Amino acid sequence: MRLVDLCLLALAANVAVCIASDGKRVVRGEPEWRDGFRAPNKPRPNFVLIQTDDQARWDMVAMNKTVRLLTNEGVSFSNYMVNTPICCPSRTEIFSGRYYHNVGAPNGSCMHVNSESWVFDKTSLFSTLQDNGYLTGVFGKVTNDQGKYFCNEKRADGMTVVSSPCDYNDFYGSPYFVKLANGTKYVEKLDSKLATTYQTSQIGNRSIAWIKEITASDADTPFFAYLGPHAPHYPADPAPWQTDNIFADVKAPRTPNWNESCPDKHEMIADNPPLNENATVFLDHQHQIRLLSLLSVDDVIESVYNTLKELNILDNTYIIFTSDHGYHLGQWRVPSSKQQPYDTDIFVTTLMRGPGISPSSTVGAMVGNVDVAPTIIDLAGINIPPVMDGKSMAKLVVTEENPFYGVSQKEAERAAGEWRKTFLIEYKSVGTYTSTHAVMWWPKGDDFHGQHIRPPAAPCEKGCPDWYLDGPSNTYRGLRLKNSTHDLFYGEFNPDWQYDNVTAVFHELYDVASDPYQMKNIYKTTSAPALNDLRKQLEMYAKCAGGTASGNCP
What is the pTM of this model? Predict the structure, then answer.
């Protein structure tokens, strides 16, 4: 079945009417051009957003093709951060353009946020693009509760087509929720015995097939394609054709803070015992299979790039690559996870190429996941929904050569100078759990499915704690500040998530310029005026909300 066979312009109604092959009509709104959009008479740009899961910055060693195609041909964001370093909140933030405290936290149902409400909100990235004339295709992991809203409720507001696994942790054979352009919805079952059902490749193949289809049948309508591969999140199954461990000699990064005692950090970390040999072997193996799983993501990105080039639409398409958050592997004696407010977990490799972006360029401004949706919407020539907390990065990345959004050198410099110098970090612990929480892929003879095993627990007397990954003390709000004179992290920790007229239970402050591995908490030795200034900045930032009387966010 063709996804879209015919698209007519109904001038009287001022809407685009698409007739699918079964005769059903799909209506798309005509865009309301934002002020200053330069070329409404030209084809609008397409967008491909690729978001991996749990990817640390050091994992890019496995993605040489992506580096070559996106870094060398586009822009790198050296200070891209996430507002909340855990899956469901961060993903809700990227699709809504809103901070953690504005998407239902701390009382939401998916890791304390209302992901379903905001993913499908009329102001979300998906709905805003679709309502303004874009075809929107969704492939892979969106948020952690998609099994509920996709596969059980069959909900897909703002999404023209969907092809996403119900259980993203199943790298083989998970049923897929499918929505066709004519509105048909169903759950497709795959044969897990087939190597071809490998999830990363399925996501790549399904998205490429859709791009080819709509380009052939509806070339004048711009599209937005979202790809959400689950790699390198555990169990991090490598592709069945990755029979050789080419990373066998690679160890988890032994940074200066690796397996180091940090008694002046919050309680959860301060109490962790040293990592032993068994834990170290497991972390090294985990790092290796994570890298192996990313080889397939690298292949998908190359295939998408080549497809766009073959279809002669590459130069009119923005490709954005990012992850939902970073990761650590033994730093501060915390084995393998995210959730912490430190640079390993909040900083993410983010790359972008497209019309008007200078090759091999770098943006050093403090940008983040809440800025992605406003940027895409802005570059599409659409007014950014006022409710969004994030800001468009367009003036930071495009040049005068951009046919849609030309920016003079003077405008770009002014935008960079006026950009925020702090970024908000927020998180409420999702519970107490330890190193045995995660399962990891391990070889099993010739069976490409391998086996999933749990990491070893800490060897100690009965009642002794295991290595903690998360716990109540890891509930915080904080600021990451970088300007011409300071490079700091300031955090307030309170297990009850109470900050109004309440003194935080614990504080952390790091001078990252002199302490890049965040090992020396200088809160107690910092002057009262300096601490008071940081508190005031954080208080303001943690209450901001886009388009409200209480004040827009920085």
Answer: 0.92
DSSP 195-211: GGG-HHHHHHHHHHHHH
Measured distance CA(226)–CA(311) in Å, rounded = 18
Cα separation, 489 vs 99, whole angstroms: 18
Task: Give the separation between CA 475 and CA 499, rounded to whole angstroms.
Answer: 11
The beta-strand segments (E) located in 141-288 are 161-165, 176-179, 185-188, 223-228
Residue 436's pLDDT is 77
Please name the amino acid found at residue 4.
V
Judge whether 166 counts as a catalytic residue. no
> 8 has which bridge partners?
17
> At residue 514, what is the residue type?
S
The pLDDT tens digits of the residues spanning 65-106 come to: 999 999 999 999 999 999 999 999 999 999 999 999 999 999
Residues 6+ apart with CB under 8 A from 447: none
Contacts of residue 63, defined as CB under 8 A and 6 or more positions apart, other chains included, come to 294, 295, 297, 298, 301
Residue with tokens 């193996």: 285
- In degrees and rounded to multiples of 5, residue 87 shows phi and psi of -55, -70
What are 481's strand-pairing partners?
A: 422, 488
Token output for 98 = 């809103």
Question: Given pLDDT bands bounded at 50, 70 and 90, which one contains residue 465?
Answer: low
What is the total residue count of the chain?
554
Identify which of 553, 181, 172, 226 has the alpha carbon closest to the alpha carbon of residue 390: 553
Confirm if 190 and 174 have CB atoms less than 8 A apart: yes
Provide the β-strand partners of residue 427. 476
Band (pLDDT 50/70/90 cuts) for residue 319 is very high
Q: 186 by DSSP, 3-state: which?
A: strand
Active-site residue, from 7, 18, 87, 166: 87
Separation between Cα atoms, residue 101 and residue 114, nearest integer Å: 11
What are the tokens at 436? 């045995």
Report the share of the chain in percent with pLDDT over 90: 76
pLDDT in tens, 485-517: 999 999 999 999 988 877 889 999 999 999 999
The two three-digit tokens of residue 380, written as one number: 């599409």
Task: Inform me whether the pLDDT recorded for 274 exceeds 60.
Answer: yes
Question: Which pair of structure tokens corresponds to residue 55?
Answer: 């990817």
